[in-house]
Amino acid sequence: MSHSAPRSVLQTHEVSNQPTPREGHDLWQSDAILRLHAKSAPEADMAAFGAELGTAEMRQAGRLANKHNPELVSFDRSGRRLDEVRFHPAYHQLMQAGLSRGIAAAAWDGAEAGHVQHAAMTYMMSQVEPGVTCPMVMTYASVPALAANERIAAAWAPKLTARGYDNRVAPITAKSAATLGMAMTEKQGGSDVRANTTRAVRDGEGYRLRGHKWFCSAPMSDGFLTLAQAKGGLTCFLVPRWLEGERNSIQIMRLKDKLGNRANASSEIEYHDAYAERLGEEGQGVKTIIEMVHHTRLSTAVAPAGLMRGALDEAVWWCTHRSAFQRRLIDQPLMQQVLADMVLDQEGTTALAMHMARAFDANDKGFGRIGVALAKYLGNKLCPGFVYEAMECLGGAGYTEETPMPLYYREAPLNSIWEGSGNVICLDILRTLARDAEAGAALRTELEAAKGGSAAYDSALAAHEARFPKLCEEREARQFAESLASLLTASVLLRHAPDAVAQAYAATRLGSGGGRSYGTAGFGDVSAILERVRA
Ligand SMILES: Cc1cc2nc3c(=O)[nH]c(=O)nc-3n(C[C@H](O)[C@H](O)[C@H](O)COP(=O)(O)OP(=O)(O)OC[C@H]3O[C@@H](n4cnc5c(N)ncnc54)[C@H](O)[C@@H]3O)c2cc1C
């Protein structure tokens, strides 16, 4: 049979007015907002990380790690249990980049402004591939909780803060570096961990754990801080994944099929009389593990700032290089209103998150406890709507997987859900202020410090105090938390950000200036605000 000759390819159109991908740009140098609010971190270290993460190679690693999801390998070919998770090499590349530069270590190994370093690195990594930050953040956050047991801390802390990545499946004594996860949530109770049913029974120096965990992220970590019921009540344990010479009896039942956060493995696990060591006293489990949760909360307050930055950066890039109706989008008055409005929330979220990282560096425990909850609450409530709006700036292209917008969008709700979901955080804020005079006083000092800088701020603070002379009813906790978090953000901006941003934030987020969607604030001249993000 003869084939007819192929018809020549017809030239139907020329490709124009399609911005090239935004890559190969330095995530530190190009971000004036991050550089301002994280300026206590050593410039050279942050610049090196930002330059490395911004390369086309690392951007590609982010895409690959997100696309090729982890796989559970339950058995070897002979039917013996393996319980391992296999990742794409790009995942390991990103883990190596973050851990070797100190994302988990800087806060603990004597580095200057270590918590701000951790926060700035988490923010930058969130733009490249947010899922991989989960195991790195948990490793960072686990270190202070280990202090409850000197012997465990001496064995584990040096490996967790080793500024390296060793992903071999082996006991930690044989490894140069280690990571830790946490296993609290069970089917019948996540926020309410006191409903945990996993049992811990003494066995010589250690314990044996039997039960399930409904969510356990990064199940290939070298160990898990776990809550289980011992004789004396809910207790915190370190469960190593490997014992000398054998696997600990932890079975990975399945991996979760998640909306986003896809590079990260999250699993359901079972402890089959798994060996565990106790951290802290029996019955003191919540008190012990809260040290870890407190630090993961800082990262969950930082992550939305990073996601918002990634999305806004794409939007500004697109609008700078695309025209519609004979004018660049960035020059269109209505698009400028939308972008400027978004800049305020991105800089506000970044400023507050980095301010909290500085409080951690200063060991300001009272302010740390209350401020981190306020920052986590507000930043994460804004993030999904913000990312959607940035997506729309790209028009139809923003809805396609060839841009990072779907990745950011799928990730956007997560940091509100874990480490204390919205309502739980609001109730925590009430509890902290009711019980912890030091936290209340520190928050008052922070709010007072910005008085006199903006009329809108002063009257909003007075209105908040008039409405809530003490604390509020439980049902009002979201109004209370949102109001306080917005005031605190404005206070930080008034003290640490350019006046144009701080005044506009106070006028539109605290006063009656803003509407319910981006672009309705009704600014006059937006050039100084847009200057914050112009390429
Ligand atoms: C991707 C992913 C990874 C995770 N990884 C881990 C992990 O590694 N380790 C781990 O231990 N857990 C992990 N979790 C679990 C997560 O921390 C919990 O899902 C979360 O704490 C909420 O618990 P829950 O799902 O049981 O919801 P619930 O506790 O049932 O809460 C449901 C809703 O009720 C609200 N609520 C609860 N109490 C009150 C109240 N008193 N008043 C008003 N509202 C209330 C909550 O805010 C929430 O909106 C992960 C979750 C996800 C999605």
Textual characterization of the structure:
By secondary structure, the protein is an alpha+beta fold. It has two domains: 32-283, Butyryl-CoA Dehydrogenase, subunit A, domain 2 (Beta Barrel), CATH 2.40.110.20; 287-530, Butyryl-CoA Dehydrogenase, subunit A, domain 3 (Up-down Bundle), CATH 1.20.140.10. The protein has helices at 32-37, 43-53, 56-67, 89-100, 114-128, 133-145, 150-160, 285-321, 333-361, 365-393, 405-411, 414-417, 422-435, 437-448, 455-467, 477-496, 499-510, 527-530; strands at 71-75, 81-86, 180-183, 199-203, 206-217, 223-230, 233-240, 242-243, 246-247, 250-255, 266-279, 323-324, 327-328. The strands form four sheets. Strands 3, 4, 5, 6, 7, 10 and 11 form a seven-stranded mixed sheet that branches. The protein has a two-stranded antiparallel ribbon with strand order 1-2. Helix 13 packs across helix 16 (477-496). The radius of gyration is 24 Å and the shape is globular. The mean pLDDT is 96.
CATH third-tier fold name of the largest domain: Butyryl-CoA Dehydrogenase, subunit A, domain 2
Indicate the CATH architecture of the largest domain.
Beta Barrel
**Attached small molecules:** flavin-adenine dinucleotide
Shape: globular
Tell me the strand percentage band.
Answer: 5-15%
Question: What ranges have pLDDT less than 50 throughout 5 or more consecutive residues?
Answer: none
Radius of gyration over all CA atoms, rounded: 24 Å
How many distinct folded domains? 2
| Overall residue-averaged pLDDT value | 96
